[in-house]
TrEMBL record:
Protein name (database record): Mannitol-1-phosphate 5-dehydrogenase
Organism: Alkalihalophilus lindianensis
Domain Mannitol dehydrogenase N-terminal residue range list: 2-191
Domain Mannitol dehydrogenase C-terminal, residue spans: 203-360
Protein EC: 1.1.1.17
Pfam family, one: Mannitol_dh
Entry keyword set: NAD, Oxidoreductase
The family this protein is said to belong to: Belongs to the mannitol dehydrogenase family.
Length: 382
């Protein structure tokens, strides 16, 4: 069995590949980083090390790589022969991989290939659905699109495992021991179920619980860690002020999950404790810069900050902690992070309130926009 996986980065090598490998797949990684592709083709294997007291290593073999920019026709051929396509490139990159994916799925129709599923494993609500839309945009002919749809499943998914950036050399990956991969059964075309994956009939509560707890909590530590000039997540979570904010933020998003999806309070509390323990993992070295990366994406309307903030505001539930974290995201300023640089430039050119409106899609006279503005001022005056 062959799986094509787009994105040989942290989560691709450190999580998705482990599950695919343990289910007996050969893995073809598609990436744009030639050094990564060269190493995959030279070594054909790498190890995943678990960040825990007792060292444990998992060997991943039967892997190779293709560069989607320079080996497009090979990528199309490989998609045509594959049994599964998975993706973890980042939501902003999904439109860029759509043309080659569309060509590969079209090729499958021409050669009469078996049905296949395409699963995007990104931190976003509805990432596979978004990818499906980008692929559709690449197919002009309605009959071909109908053919692709009848032969291809596009299930949404939620993925959870902390995989920090790795050292520049080598393919080996250090990951936390925990992982969770949940796939929506609706939209699946293939019968095979992967060991290590949970299949659910309703995905939204799971993905929102994950995004608004793990990722909102993570963003809280990263942005407040940055404000407090702390480098790593494990260090920042030990800071009493940040810890208080983290607990406050999880309480707020927990309230939303409780009223919206009727998650049990006790169940959510246990989930919070488990997640805080994961953030505290001192065997992982995860800089606040990685976790805070792409603040424009993280501050967009449906993501981990504005998403819960607006929904809590609509329900008249307190959001003081979320407001503080959102404000801190506007202070994230990392030279290598283009989105943070762009936010700082926008603030200089157009002022804070207009920047808040532009980045979050809130209207400038929305009470939350003004409250975020006030929270930024408070952070600056601390
Ligand atoms: N790292 C984590 O802890 C984690 C956990 C859960 C989900 N995620 C999500 O997984 C996705 C990937 O995150 P990551 O941490 O692995 O990032 P990453 O930067 O380590 O990996 C992304 C990979 O995609 C490749 N890429 C970029 N453009 C491409 C293109 N056009 N075609 C093919 N490959 C391309 C990059 O070269 C890189 O190797 C993101 O959506 C992230 O939110 C990450
Ligand atoms: O990947 P991002 O940029 O959406 O978010 C950064 C981290 O919060 C994220 O990568 C977590 O490590 C991951 O989502 C844990 O499952």
């Amino acid at each position: 069995m062959l799986a094509v996986h787009f994105g040989a980065g942290n989560i691709g090598r450190g999580f998705i590949a482990e599950v695919l490998h343990s289910n007996g797949y050969e893995i073809c990684f598609i990436d744009v980083s030639q050094p990564l592709i060269d190493q995959l083709n030279e070594k054909r294997a790498y190890s995943i090390r678990l960040a825990q007291e007792e060292e444990e290593t998992i060997e991943i073999n039967n892997v190779y790589g293709l560069n989607s920019q320079t080996e497009e026709s090979k990528v199309i051929e490989t998609i045509a022969q594959a049994d599964l396509v998975t993706v973890s490139v980042g939501v902003n990159i999904l439109p860029l991989i759509a043309p080659v994916l569309a060509a590969g799925l079209k090729k499958r129709l021409e050669v009469g290939a078996r049905p296949i599923d395409v699963i995007a494993c990104e931190n976003a609500i509805g990432a596979t659905t978004a990818l499906k839309g980008h692929i559709k945009d690449q197919v002009d002919d309605a009959t071909i699109w109908e053919g692709i749809l009848s032969n291809t499943g596009f299930p949404d998914a939620a993925v959870d495992r902390i995989v920090p950036n790795q050292s520049r050399e080598g393919l080996d990956v250090m990951v936390e021991p925990f992982f969770e991969w949940v796939v929506h059964t609706e939209g699946l075309k293939i019968e095979k179920r992967l060991d290590g994956v949970s299949y659910v009939d309703e995905l939204t509560p799971y993905i929102e619980r994950k995004l608004y707890t793990v990722n909102t909590g993570h963003a809280c530590i990263a942005y407040l860690g940055f404000v407090h000039e702390i480098d790593s997540i494990a260090e920042a979570v030990k800071n009493p002020t940040i810890r208080r904010e983290l607990e406050g933020v999880l309480e707020e998003t927990g309230r939303l999950l409780e009223v919206k999806y009727h998650f049990e309070r006790e169940e959510l509390k246990a989930y919070h404790q488990k997640i805080i323990g994961r953030f505290e993992n001192s065997h992982l070295s995860d800089p606040v810069e990685r976790v805070g990366r792409n603040p424009m994406r993280k501050l967009s309307a449906n993501d981990r900050l504005i998403g819960p903030l607006v929904q809590l505001h609509e329900r008249k539930i307190n959001t003081q902690h979320l407001l503080k974290v959102t404000a801190a995201a506007f202070l994230f300023d990392v030279a290598q992070d283009e989105e943070s640089v762009q936010i700082q430039r926008l603030i200089k050119e157009r002022g804070l309130l207009e920047t808040i409106a532009e980045v979050t899609s809130l209207s400038p006279d929305h009470p939350l926009a003004e409250e975020i503005e006030r929270a930024v001022a408070e952070l600056l005056n601390q």
